[in-house]
Amino acid sequence: MTGTGIGAPVRRKEDFRFITGKGHYTDDINRPGQTHAVFVRSPHAHAAIRSIDASAALTSPGVLAVFTGDDLTADKVGGLICGWMIHSKDGTPMKAGGHPALAQGKVRYVGDHVAVVIAETHAQGREAAEKVKVDYEVLKPVVDMAEAIKPGAPVIHDVASDNTVYNWHLGDKAAADAAFAKAAHVTKLDIVNNRLVPNAMEPRAAVGDYDSGSDAFTLYTTSQNPHVARLVLSAFIGIAPEHKLRVIAPDVGGGFGSKIFIYAEETVCVWAAKKVGRPVKWTADRTEAFLADAHGRDHVTHAELAIDEKGKITGLRVHTKANLGAYLSTFASSVPTYLYAPLLSGQYDIPAIYAEVDGIYTTTAPVDAYRGAGRPEATFVVERLIEVAARETGVDPAQFRKKNFVRTFPHQTPVIMCYDAGDYDASLTKALEMADYKNVGKRKRESAKKGLLRGVGISAYIEACGIAPSAAVGSLGAGVGLWESAEVRVNPVGTVEILTGSHSHGQGHETTFAQLVSSRLGISIDNVSIVHGDTDKVQMGMGTYGSRSGAVGMSAISKALDKIETKAKKVAAYVLEASDKDIEFKDGKFSVKGTDKSIDFASVALQAYIAHKFSGQELEPGLKESAFWDPTNFTFPAGVHICELEIDPQTGVTRIDRWTAVDDFGEIINPMIVEGQVHGGIGQGIGQALHESAVYNESGQLVTASYMDYCMPRADDVPSYNVGMTQTRCPSNPLGIKGCGEAGAIAAPPAVINAITDALGHEDIAMPATPRAVWRAAQKSIGLKAAE
Amino acid sequence: MYPFTYHQPDSVRQAASVAGKAEDAKFLAGGMTLLPTMKQRLASPANLIDLSKIGDLAGIEVKGRSVVIGAMTRHFDVANSKELQAAIPALADLAGMIGDPAVRNRGTIGGSLANNDPAADYPAAALALGATIITNKRKIEAEDYFTGLFETALEEGEIITKVSFPIPAKAGYEKFRNPASRYAIVGVFVAKRGSDVRVAVTGAGASGVFRATKIEAALTAKFSSKSLEGVKMPAEGLNTDIHADAEYRAHLITVMAKRATDKAK
Amino acid sequence: MPVVSMTVNGKAVSADVDPRTLLVHYLRENLRLTGTHVGCDTSQCGACVVMVNGASIKSCTALAVGLQGADVTTIEGLAKDGKLHPMQEAFRENHGLQCGFCTPGMIMSAVDIVNRNGSKIDEKTIREELEGNICRCTGYHNIVKAIAAGAEAMGG
Ligand SMILES: Cc1cc2nc3c(=O)[nH]c(=O)nc-3n(C[C@H](O)[C@H](O)[C@H](O)COP(=O)(O)OP(=O)(O)OC[C@H]3O[C@@H](n4cnc5c(N)ncnc54)[C@H](O)[C@@H]3O)c2cc1C
Ligand code: FES
Ligand code: FES
To answer: Among A158, A481, B85, B112, which residue's CB has the most CB atoms within a 10 Å radius?
Structure first.
């Protein structure tokens, strides 16, 4: 490990511009002659559009145009897509209703896009938007999943007359049923995984630009995956062929999944730029973000765990209803299916698992991937069941877990996944130690003296990251491969540019990727720059989500660096007049084995371009290589989080007293950044468990459409986190990396709820465990105590 | 925001005169309530009269047995006033619980009382301490001032200039914050002056700040949180929203009243 | 349109502005100081915090016309003579930022917190004082650490 190489807590290279206010976010971009788009949004959850009258808006000051769905249709602009095909149990394909960028005769959630006003200024656009008269025939909203699937419920999309997108399943039902038939004990739970709004602090934004001279479009947008955006906008929506559409995702202020998707707004901005002949800009305000960003989670689950007389788990049955919202967003269909059920084995050896998932339309905002995407929902089911099963059978929850852990690898679960490496015992043991678990009883008694209820909760999570082997996901319905690309450009002076298809929106790639290059080539990280987020610069890439940038993105870079090394050795061989087989490369120096002849990396780079020492017929000049890395397996980060908290039964306020996290992420490139990712994930997980919830009322209005009602965790809502690591190398990629971006958000919610239920002495509490909910639950505890 | 004409008078008289002439005018104090409402196009005054350049509207003064606070005094200055911390520490304490530091640096006591948000903090103090709201036209007793949700006795164009708070023997404020907005879900201000105990509750009432007579009675008997053991507030007339239902609020009133009493200085 | 003159980051600036112009838009659009961000509509997130006459305010909730003669410092004006402010250094050193969007507001609030509370601040105080600044990335751990370290450095 060098000072800036792999494993060093290098301070981030990108920070200088952020701490000095010099970042370049999409809203910071202004194009000459720019106009502003303001969307007319549906105030109704469900309505037919009888007519749209834009005449008053069109004569409003500063207005250039008002467009509706008809204008898009006339220009053959296609609808938004869902890129993952799911088949129901009976083999029928999912029922995907149309998803127009601007409504076609019907609106299906509050905030749905009805029309767009293009105006000289944002204020003028807003004034005009209020003048667009839309004649709605209001239809009955369908907010609740249980209502949506009742016979006679209002139909949201004609293709799905029962408002059901699919009835999907995974696993062996007969085997699972057999396990339950023989079980000594069965634990049953009904679980709600609350609906969340991702809330990246930078709201989504887009600037569309069109150059009539070259008939080419440029779209600046807040995207986690600009190449996928270009692909979808080109191949499916039909804005322009890919070579005529450049998508740039500059600095992006957080994504957490919500900026993966291709939304109506950027589609309309880039298309409208040509229509009005001027750049078109849109920046969401926070209310729009609440209404129209894809939401996350929203599952209702019944789950059962079968246990034999020795306390070994023998089976798991799960039936989940997943709210997909009003339309299928870009990856929506995969989240409650293939990103969820394959994780239901947790860290445990469970011989039989059967999961059924019903994907359901409601007249609410589309639901798609949010940090963890499916895996937090799975972990919540598993870790709640395990905890309750331990309590019901009178076994210490830590011991119950240990007894059921997977201990040999590779381990094939009954639900697709083959865990390649891990040591679950090591993480649990270390976490118990760090959390001073053995003295919890004492601390509980001390709290009780103060009239407070103390509880401790464990969560042993696993996630499947580094998504994903292309052929494997293809067989499961994915519309694209999930490899990653990299190009390494070595300049004649020996500095290096890395072009990557990964995209950083807070993850620190400019630093960690440079660390990899620094380690491999023996050059300073200051001599490495990372280029990403621009489809004109980077040829192709799949972007950043699912904790894949390290395991997949860096593997691609590593592969390209292999090629650089091979080529550079050849150049060095010519310069040093030796055979390239005798050239060794170490610490930035090429040397001839067994001699003192050597040349440094920068000189080799120069020689590669000067090309005097070899003929172009023998060796191509230059030093530039590219590679695609297609993963051979998912990666399986896993770990244990322990939450200890105190409840004030008088008010219902929960205070987290200590948080212990022990994670196994495989090899670590930069521990400082990895810990930061863990912290952020835990913060969001605590948010889900205690504070956050997107609430629609019965008429389909989003009640929590601002920070006045949607509770974002603040600094005084969370504790400091005690983070530790264990390590088993990931065998499925050259760097041994597993990924760390989602772990905290996956691990945290069950740890919190297990702790709260431990404190309360009963299981009757749902997320978010707000003070009111906890107070009510504490009343019940008092009642139960009195009855004893 | 909708367009408006901006005025920046330098005296109360001038401000009142502009308000008298201009159509659909609103005063701008700290702007911490008015500007967000205007941004969301929920308010659209044609004329905005900024009070911030009127010199003599800010300041804290102990006058005999009262503390007089200028309408434009920022929450930060109320929270940090040494005079006030000595005279009515509970009021300084309350001001320090409003919003966040940047909000406290702008928001004013006059703006808060004029706005009379049912979840705001100052109304509880004004009512429990028996404050007098002084305007450019008259003096209004707190009892008569708060008339409903966002409703006050202020007339069109009337400007709060000062608020006078009688100094109590003891007072305390405790707030149960809305976890999202951080306004009060329940805020209870208890004040004792001689044998008179007043307890005002904000955040909870369906029609705004009110006096909790049941708690007052219990504390009048003996000013101690022990007196409140078993005192149950009725849920009728209390708010229910996604954060708290009426029953929970009723329960919290007693809990906050106990804690405010324990804190009272 | 009224003329507003103020000092921004030590420079005198003057412009005709629509009275509706919020300070944040004046900074971002007129002066092209895009380090100050907008993250909400309800004055809660703190991405827009700047210093006006030495005190932190939310620039999304102040009219530019009302700040005639004011002395405004934004994140761009914090570093002096090419040297980072100790609080900026502390954020970098302690990994107090990820996506960087909340960071300018956080740093401005942090400086204000130290100005008001002095250089020895405990964790609890820092957390309470950050009530008006939302970060979605960091879980606050390293922000709190950074502010404690920045406070010490500011103290000398
Ligand atoms: C993020 C945030 C959090 C907050 N948290 C809290 C909280 O926890 N508790 C709480 O109590 N408040 C809270 N507030 C509100 C804050 O205290 C406001 O400052 C206050 O409610 C209004 O005061 P202002 O000076 O900003 O008034 P403005 O917003 O300028 O004006 C409010 C209203 O009062 C009128 N007005 C102002 N001054 C006068 C006057 N002198 N005479 C007559 N009419 C006048 C105006 O015309 C307007 O209608 C919060 C605000 C924000 C943005
Ligand atoms: S933008 Fe100012 S507080 Fe959010
Ligand atoms: S660093 Fe992204 S919001 Fe704070």
So the answer is: B112
